[in-house]
């Protein structure tokens, strides 16, 4: 996370140096960002140890995104449609100090979201409105659906000889989400903050949905 923040700071400085007055124009953009994802579990599954696929709710994941976007303003209005194609990483390294080996020894069950690494891609299509603030600033509000596809999702426990592909038996590869957020733009450079909530469930066996809070930096050409 520290390296990600340093990278965001350096890139933001470079983009500000390149910034020019763009106004409200159609165009291609690039973006990077960081994510914090909160898991919401089904209370009926809490504290159960007699199920094979044990899932611990209420945990936090960290991630990063990078990608391309295209914004198209509608006629002569300030309403816009924007497509966003991104690559993402989502990971977790421990669960409150409890590791898979402990769960296996005590309950002979699986703790599937301990030390997880997921890589994938997403496509979002949002609609929004850009409020001009003076000649060089603008504020965006936007909302719309997002489709995610996980290319790889694994946990790997060399100490106990267990390697699992979570897309085979636990997580769904395809997922639908919904975004809602706002952005602040200065010339070509912008910062956006938005939340994404799962429309479809992430795991196959448990009725859990995640909420992700994202902070991103974008540059429009």
Task: Give your account of this protein's structure.
13% of the residues lie in helices and 56% in strands. Residues 15-22, 43-54 and 105-110 have low confidence and may be disordered. By secondary structure, the chain is mainly beta. The relative contact order is 0.21. The longest helix has 17 residues, at 2-18. The protein has an eight-stranded antiparallel barrel with strand order 1-3-4-6-7-9-10-11. Strands 2-5 form a two-stranded parallel ribbon.
Short description:
By secondary structure, this protein is mainly β.
Which keywords apply here?
3 helices, mainly beta, eight-stranded antiparallel β-barrel, two-stranded parallel sheet, 221 residues, 11 strands, Porin
Count up the helices.
Answer: 3
Oligomer: single chain
CATH topology: Porin
Total discrete domains: 1
Quickly give the structural class. Answer: mainly beta
Write the topology of this structure.
Elements lengths: L1 H17 L8 E14 L12 E2 L5 E14 L5 E14 L7 H8 L2 E2 L4 E18 L3 E21 L4 E4 H4 L4 E13 L2 E10 L10 E12 L1
Parallel strand pairs: 2-5
Antiparallel strand pairs: 1-3, 1-11, 3-4, 4-6, 6-7, 7-8, 7-9, 9-10, 10-11
């Amino acid at each position: 996370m520290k390296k990600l923040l340093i990278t965001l700071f350096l890139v933001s400085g470079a983009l500000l140096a390149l910034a020019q007055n763009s106004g409200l124009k159609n165009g291609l953009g690039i973006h990077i960002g960081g994510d914090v994802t909160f898991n919401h579990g089904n209370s009926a599954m809490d504290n159960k140890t007699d199920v094979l696929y044990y899932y611990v709710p209420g945990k936090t994941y960290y991630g990063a995104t990078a990608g391309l976007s295209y914004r198209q303003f509608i006629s002569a209005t300030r309403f816009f449609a924007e497509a966003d194609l991104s690559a993402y990483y989502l990971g977790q390294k421990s669960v409150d100090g409890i590791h898979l080996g402990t769960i296996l020894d005590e309950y002979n069950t699986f703790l599937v979201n301990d030390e997880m690494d997921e890589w994938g891609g997403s496509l979002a299509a949002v609609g929004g409105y850009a409020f001009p603030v003076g000649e060089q600033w603008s504020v965006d509000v936007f909302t719309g659906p997002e489709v995610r596809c996980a290319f790889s999702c694994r946990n790997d426990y060399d100490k106990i000889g267990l390697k699992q592909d979570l897309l085979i038996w636990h997580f769904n590869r395809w997922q639908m989400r919904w975004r809602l957020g706002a952005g602040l733009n200065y010339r070509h450079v912008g910062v956006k903050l938005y939340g994404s909530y799962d429309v479809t469930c992430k795991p196959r066996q448990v009725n859990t949905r995640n909420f992700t809070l994202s902070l991103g930096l974008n540059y429009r050409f």
